[in-house]
């Protein structure tokens, strides 16, 4: 949840890069229970069958002499579970910060639900839920107060906020923590309350930057199931992650960003080709570095 004063938003554009063919349906990610009703991925993201929710065109951002984002073009359709991967410093967080209106681009355009993010920020942000990489929450509030603030800020009436808070707390396993200050939460609990705050207004698009960092496997499986159901019912998730196996299991589409450029984008099957997504990523990112010349490491100290 980002404080209101950080909300800025804007330019729109026509998509330039097709997302690619539909990914073939593969088993959904492991969950904390067998739950046979867990939606299968790929069903809702048939290219051309659903409208474009997020369109990024010619996006550029430079910090001094460093070009962090260099002409990024992406198109994400409704019902997609879209992963963005890249090495540290590739421009993933910078790109998502511009999409959510937290950082103004130097060039290019972004539209959400057809609304230009930087020309009509208020309207665009009604459709977005955000979980940023570097969480900045009002941690002197209790979990319940934070969710209330988040809901009312989004225009929900108190009765609706109370009802949704109970649902979210139950879904995320936070029932017993709502009365405690967020500053007393563990890292994983903080991540979950922030995701609950991002979901409370039922956004059309969720932007999640490293959502499973510091989250234990059981909680992560539960969150994944919640997100899969959200996508199966017409929501759209765009997330960044360093977990290639996770992206390959959960996402139906993926973009690989290296040095601020999209080097590959499409269905997971298209991008990974005949190997794994990690192998394709390593190939595009420049390959593994040689470990030669470190024989001293094997001599060991007495």
Automatic annotation (TrEMBL):
Amino acid composition bias (Low complexity), ranges on this chain: 1-39
Single Gene Ontology MF annotation: ATP binding
Gene3D superfamilies hit by this protein: P-loop containing nucleotide triphosphate hydrolases (3.40.50.300)
Domain ABC transporter, first and last residues per copy: 54-284
Membrane association type: Peripheral membrane protein
Chain intervals for the UniProt region annotation (Disordered): 1-48
Superkingdom of this protein's organism: Bacteria
Primary localization: membrane
Subcellular location: Cell membrane
UniProt-listed SMART domains: AAA
Keywords: Antibiotic resistance, ATP-binding, Nucleotide-binding, Transport
Regions crossing the membrane: none
Record InterPro entries: AAA+_ATPase (IPR003593), ABC_transporter-like_ATP-bd (IPR003439), ABC_transporter_ATP-binding (IPR050763), P-loop_NTPase (IPR027417)
Name of the protein in its database record: ABC-2 type transport system ATP-binding protein
Annotated source species: Plantibacter elymi (nom. nud.)
């Amino acid at each position: 949840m980002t404080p209101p004063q950080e909300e800025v938003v804007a330019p729109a554009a026509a998509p330039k890069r097709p997302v690619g063919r539909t990914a073939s349906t593969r088993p959904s990610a492991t969950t904390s229970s067998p739950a046979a009703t867990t939606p299968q991925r790929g069903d809702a993201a048939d290219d051309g069958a659903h409208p474009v929710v997020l369109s990024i065109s010619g996006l550029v951002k430079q910090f001094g002499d460093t070009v962090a984002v260099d002409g990024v073009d992406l198109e994400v359709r409704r019902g997609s579970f879209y992963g963005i991967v890249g090495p540290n410093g590739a421009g993933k967080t910078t790109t998502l910060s511009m999409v959510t209106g937290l950082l103004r681009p130097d060039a290019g355009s972004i539209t959400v639900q057809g609304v230009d993010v930087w020309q009509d920020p208020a309207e665009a942000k009604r459709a977005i839920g955000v979980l940023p990489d570097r969480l900045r929450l009002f941690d002197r509030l209790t979990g319940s107060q934070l969710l209330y603030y988040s809901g009312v800020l989004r225009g929900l009436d108190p009765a609706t906020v109370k009802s949704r808070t109970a649902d979210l707390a139950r879904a995320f396993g936070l029932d017993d923590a709502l009365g405690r200050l967020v500053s007393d939460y563990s890292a994983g609990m903080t991540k979950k309350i922030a995701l609950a705050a991002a979901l409370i207004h039922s956004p059309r698009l969720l932007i999640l930057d490293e959502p499973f960092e510091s989250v234990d496997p059981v909680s992560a499986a539960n969150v994944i199931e919640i997100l899969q159901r959200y996508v199966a019912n017409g929501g759209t998730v765009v997330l960044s992650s360093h977990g290639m196996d996770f992206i390959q299991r959960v996402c139906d589409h993926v973009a690989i960003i290296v040095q601020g450029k999209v080097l590959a984008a499409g269905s997971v099957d298209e991008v990974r080709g005949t190997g794994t997504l990690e192998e394709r990523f390593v190939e595009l990112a420049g390959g593994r570095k040689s470990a030669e010349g470190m024989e001293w490491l094997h001599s060991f100290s007495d």
